[in-house]
């Protein structure tokens, strides 16, 4: 599986570094022989204006003329989408008026790789909802897990029932009441 992460530094004042994440087809995000490339940065203008200079450096636009050209130095773009997304990583309950007490607010994703902020926020909310509980406790050792209806436990309990039934049978009576056998 190929996953590439690269940071392209900002070139001009007022712009931001661009994070490039490249995923191959084995990540099940694109067709075989292609790559999905995701570019992100903090917005200073529109997404196209912020990212286009980096796209032009890294890729060749797909056109009919270039499709016929065998010698291509940079990968070709098959499809591109530009969008701006509101940074909601600092959203909190204080941003809303008159929320019911049983409504909790989670912020949106931040621009960092990983999920440290989301896990920290989840733990804070969990402690508000369940103050006396452990957050994400360690799982039990698989060898210590006992399942209901385990076959070895069932056999043991059945044999206990049979022996108790036999112990209540009077000593003088050996007839267990099987209807197939005639009494003598």
Can you describe what's shown?
The chain is built from 4 helices and 5 strands; from the N terminus they run E-E-E-H-E-H-E-H-H. It is α+β, with helices and mostly antiparallel strands. The protein is flat, with a radius of gyration of 34 Å. Strands 1-2-3 form a 3-stranded antiparallel sheet, with no helix packed on it. It has a two-stranded parallel ribbon with strand order 4-5. The protein has helices spanning 47-58, 64-68, 116-129, 151-167; strands spanning 3-8, 18-24, 35-40, 60-61, 76-77.
* Beta-strand content: 5-15%
- Radius of gyration, Cα only, in angstroms? 34 Å
Number of strands: 5
Structural class comes to alpha+beta
Lateral strand order in the biggest sheet: 1-2-3
Biggest sheet statistics: 3 strands, antiparallel
Helix content: 25-40%
- How far apart lie the N and C ends? 79 Å
Q: What average pLDDT do the residues reach? A: 79
Number of helices: 4
**Unreliable parts:** 156-175
Shape type = flat
SSE string: EEEHEHEHH
């Amino acid at each position: 599986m190929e996953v590439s992460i690269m940071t392209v530094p900002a070139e001009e004042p007022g712009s931001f570094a661009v994070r490039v994440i490249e995923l191959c087809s084995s990540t099940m995000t694109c067709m075989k022989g292609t790559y999905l490339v995701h570019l992100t940065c903090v917005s200073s203008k529109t997404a196209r204006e912020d990212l286009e200079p980096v796209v032009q450096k890294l890729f060749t636009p797909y056109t009919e003329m270039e499709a016929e050209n065998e010698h291509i130095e940079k990968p070709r773009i098959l499809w591109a989408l530009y969008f701006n997304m509101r940074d909601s990583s600092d959203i909190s309950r204080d941003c809303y008026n008159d929320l019911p007490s049983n409504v909790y607010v989670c912020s949106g994703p931040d621009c960092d790789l990983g999920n440290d902020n989301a896990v920290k926020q989840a733990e804070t909310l969990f402690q508000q909802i369940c103050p006396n509980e452990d957050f994400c406790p360690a799982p039990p050792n698989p060898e210590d897990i006992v399942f209901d209806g385990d076959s070895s436990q069932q056999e043991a309990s059945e044999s206990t029932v049979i022996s108790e039934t036999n112990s209540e049978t009077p000593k003088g009576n050996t007839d267990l009441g099987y209807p197939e056998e005639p009494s003598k």
